[in-house]
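Office hours follow-up: a student asked to see two folded examples consecutively, so here they are.
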Amino acid sequence: DQYKEDPGKKENIKKLPLKEQMEETMFLGLRMEKGVSRIRFYERFAVDLKEIYENSLNKLEQGGFIKWRGDFLVLTKRGVDVSNQVLAQFLFD
């Protein structure tokens, strides 16, 4: 009820832990045609996604599920077909 009265009230906004924010960024970004920007990821989290996700990225690239399009990490056609399994590789624990 309190939310209905003032939905913009700061007490109603829950901030996710940093790792969960990174996971959400990967999940939402990879579901978009444009993908996830390596530069924007670094600007937001001060960490290179190629470093923190190195093993997952290598495995998924070798399997043909993801690719780099310039600065952007995107799903390939093959990756789209199994996107839930691909996205699960970006969970921390």
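And the second, which I mentioned at the end of office hours:
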Amino acid sequence: IRAAREATQPIRARTGGSTFRNPEGQKAWALIDAAGCRGMRLGAAQVSEKHCNFLLNLGGATAADIEGLGEAVRERVRAHCGVDLHWEIARLGMAA
């Protein structure tokens, strides 16, 4: 199981885990990939090349980097796919 996860997810990288919930009947990673977000960066944060539904801290990423990148991904997915992605990561200090 560990080898299978390691082959498809950035488990050794600094991430907050799966970033967005899967919309009903769809996969968030596939929508993110279809919108051209694989590898997208903001500051020291990057959309994982290995699994698009993970945001990586490349070293020194701020909360603003992660938040801004996530929101840019959401906007791009909405524009390209017509789907609203919802955060799966609990963001502290943010209104629920």
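Two things to take away from it. The chain has a mean pLDDT of 87. Residues 2-81 form a domain with the Uridine Diphospho-n-acetylenolpyruvylglucosamine Reductase; domain 1 fold (CATH 3.90.78.10).
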